[in-house]
Amino acid sequence: MTDYNFTNLNDKDFEVLVVDLLSMHYMQRIERFKSGKDQGIDGRYFEVDGGEVIIQCKHWLKSGLSTLMSALKNTELAKVNKLAPSKYIFVTSLALSKANKTKIMSLFSPFIVSESDIWGNEDLNTLLSSNPELEKKHYKLWLTSTTVLTRILNGAIEGRSQYKVEEINESTKKYAMTLNHTEALEKLESLKTVIIKGSPGVGKTTLAEQLCQSYLAKGFKLCVIAHSLTEAEAIYNPSEKQVFYYDDFLGRNYLDAIEHKQDSHIVEFINRIKKDSKKRFILTTRSNILNQGNRLTDTFTLNKIERNEYEVSVTNLSMLEKAYILYNHIWFSNLPEPFIEEIYKDSKYLKIVNHKNFNPRLIAFITDYERFVGINKSEYWEYILSTLNNPKEIWGKVLDSHVDLISRDLVIALTIHGKAITENSLKDIYNSLKKAVYYTGNLRRFEETAEILTGALLNRTINTENNVEYDLFNPSIADYVISTYLSDINYICKIISCIKSHESVHNLNALRIFGKLEKETYTLILTELLDDIAQHSLSNVSKYELEIVLKSLYFVNPTESQVKYFNELANFLPNLDYHHGKTRVLEIIQAFIENEVLNVDDELYSELLNKWISAPLDIEGYTSLSYLVTAVEPFGGTYTDSFKYHLIESLAEEITDDIINNGILDNIYDKYDVRDNLIHDHIKSKLLDLDIKLTNDDINEIAMHCDIEEIINYNKESEVDWNQDEYEEADIRGLSNHSDSKSKEIDQIHDLFEKG
């Protein structure tokens, strides 16, 4: 038997459910009326003899039974006496004892003719057990059924995913289903992958998480990807239904994604997913980040990934959909009643719904009482307007007023770092800040500070190795930090010197490329950072120092002492090993050649080439190495021959998997249908950036290692039955009807906010 407490439903959801249930039970079409405007009538039907039956619903879980009984006696009784129906049916989500029913029947006598006309929690659950089709129709209710909830909570593949499942499940009650949900789900079902994009705060992540929830309810397992698709590939199970979720998959800047070939990996994984009926792939990204990326690389464009994109926009929401978002947040908020009254007074909710800056994130902010403790009810409306008028400032108030200075600096450090960071690394930054910056008063332990910041400015998650990681609570925090603090050169340099991560230096360059940081400011920051590391010993050169050097070579006009440091580092290059990053070290060598710090005639250069020419590299590493080889052998030679030998060997070894992952020979089931030019063109596309060009014979040699039989067998095994289980989504009460006139829509919003 079902056992709902109905806590995931607001009062209006509960009324709709009750009317649906009683319509089935009494086999009657039940009329519904505007809440509160028809003397408390939530439903009505007429008996055969013409007698009027009135239905009243009370979803008073917050108030409790004693408050309900008092309201029935002091308010509802007079309404019922005035209506004088032939029968009165009373329904509540609260559990009722026999004594409770007897008391209610006595109170409303003679209109309640039987205790069976009084419906409590247990009665509704019994009725739901007999009508499972209604259970599925009411989406949020269905998700909390014992069977479905067990399926959901057991649907995590590993630790981080378990945490996310619990988080999604808790947030479901505030979710207002809109047309976005239906359309995104249709695209996901059709293509097996959906990329949800949109501006900050429009609800991309919430929509994606609820799509995940839909599949968890259908028995899929969830894999939350934090950093790269290798996490998904490690637990990809062909025999299991799996949904992969990658939030903010391009990160805060696209430059990092490109350098790590994230775009190519995404395309490969999408192609793999579309061949597997048991898999779904959900991604989110900001529209501007995706657009910036598309200007830097054509990987997505060439592979027509735009067909998988679904844009979430507030402008696509109707006024009524926005009203439901606001209403749900108020209903499930911790707002004291006097504060709620400020929103209801003079229908101010319409001003919120119609505000030009309306978005779900801001609604979450203005209805979260813990975020503005200290503001009294008379100041609340001004707080709402201020937040809506100046949305960027919501984080400014928290950073500058609600936390101490070292907490603020820690959040800013994480912003500049540019991505999630392990707990130990964040603790190291915290301790470095304590040593480098003067803070007044007694400072908390790191653990206490992290606990205070979590949920307000930071997110704490568990990664696939069961290590704790921290990231910004919301990407828009970075927007505020970048626009407010990045111009303070001394401050930013002090923060970066405490972070000491190559990611932070790399992130600064991305901010420059995307116009968030002036070139002059960027150059001054690099100059100061270079001055600092030039004092360091070369016995333990870090990736952080190499990143500063690499960027400085192209932007800083070096001083005499900095030139000396470059020369010393050049002589130290043979000691740099793979843990510094193979591609990065090769880029440093290339930059030294281009800036005449290193000479191709030096014995040192030969030593470096001999070290790297046979090293196992990816295509980016080979691209840098090809420059170094042509610098000393512009017309070919021993190094060139060795380079081509190792490159061809590397590409030949991976060509079959590469062709499969990129879908080059999709839908090929016979070797006679294979066109050689498809394979050749793909190989050539991978080699476009090389300074050393391969001949057609070289291309043929690589292509010959492509195992056509393996690809054909893979294609045959990947044939799927597209007949999937139908997803029965909730009836969203006509929200998809955008043809209603504005005046009618406003009436519906007033009805929604009308108190019964």
For the biggest sheet, the summary is: 5 strands, parallel
The unreliable regions are 720-740
What's the shape?
A: globular
Strand order of the largest sheet: 6-7-8-5-9
Count of DSSP E strands?
12
Question: What labels describe this entry?
Answer:
about 750 residues, alpha/beta, 5-stranded parallel β-sheet, 4-stranded mixed β-sheet, 38 helices, about 55% helix
Provide an overview of this structure.
- This protein is of the alpha/beta class and 756 residues long.
- Helix content is 55%, strand content 8%.
- It has 38 helices and twelve strands.
- A five-stranded parallel sheet has the order 6-7-8-5-9.
- Helix 22 packs across helix 23 and helix 34 (638-661) packs across helix 36.
- The model is unreliable at 720-740 (pLDDT under 50).
Sequence-ordered SSE layout with sheet pairings:
Blueprint: H1 11-26, E1 43-46, E2 52-58, H2 65-83, E3 87-92, H3 98-107, E4 118-119, H4 121-130, H5 132-137, H6 139-142, H7 146-153, H8 159-171, H9 179-191, E5 193-198, H10 204-217, E6 221-225, H11 230-234, E7 242-246, H12 254-259, H13 262-273, E8 279-286, H14 287-296, H15 299-302, E9 309-312, H16 319-331, H17 337-344, H18 349-353, H19 360-366, H20 377-389, H21 393-402, H22 405-417, E10 421-422, H23 423-436, H24 446-453, E11 458-462, E12 468-472, H25 475-485, H26 489-499, H27 502-513, H28 519-533, H29 543-555, H30 560-572, H31 582-594, H32 603-612, H33 619-632, H34 638-661, H35 676-686, H36 696-703, H37 708-717, H38 742-753
Parallel strand pairs: 2-3, 3-4, 5-8, 5-9, 6-7, 7-8
Antiparallel strand pairs: 1-2, 10-12, 11-12
Helix pairs in contact: 8-10, 16-38, 17-20, 22-23, 22-26, 23-26, 26-28, 27-29, 28-29, 29-31, 31-33, 33-34, 34-36, 34-37, 35-36
